[in-house]
Predict the structure.
Amino acid sequence: MDFKERQKIRNKIISEINSVLINESPFEINKETLPFFQMEKSLMDISKSFKLENINSIIIIDKIENSRRKILMFYKAIINTLNEEEIARIEVGNQWDPLIGIYENNVLYNLEAMILFARSFLDISTYIFSTLLINKRVDSFRKFCLKILNSDDSALSSLKIMILNELNSGESWITTLASIETRSLRDKIAHQTVIKLRYYPINEISDKEYCYVVYDDFQIPLERFIEKVFNGLNNFIHACEDLIFKKISPSEDV
């Protein structure tokens, strides 16, 4: 991955996040671009269709609000990670590893926060999906994935395939956040260690080095690592939302 490709990924992620965070009023968030916007608008129909008791509807509303708070923290941590790593390269230079002293701490702080907020967001959201898709209360993203993988419900087959494809991929965002087949990076940084960041040349003839996230047998460019978690999380949430709306109107496309 060359410098231009890295910058393209970086700019795309920042642009998408800023479309949510930047508003004319500092007291408003662009909810239309956040998860669960359509679900919140349709909550009355969802409650009737799934025959939810009032208490369950109230809990779902609370989970939607809290999940929004978590994903905004996740977005903010992404922006901070990219900015702090860029500051280190500009101020220290990238002829060698610029992550020394406070520069390293600033990047690690925000990158680990990004991972922890992402998992927290998924755990909170899992209550919504488990209640509406499998009629069970589950508060763990890991447990929800396992229940989907073990389910024989054909309506969940697309979600099962999505999870399986991720688990079989070399650089899976799911295994970054949840210990399903192997211990996740999230669990490692929460209980055992810190993220390892290393700088390597783009190619054999380059004298400039760029940041990689190193774990297990993988060396992933920082920008690609963030992109995979960012896109994977958002795609998973949209897939679950689509399944919920299909259960309400199975004959209609979402």
User: Anything to note?
Assistant: Residues 3-21+35-248 form one domain. Residues 54-92 form the longest helix (39 residues).
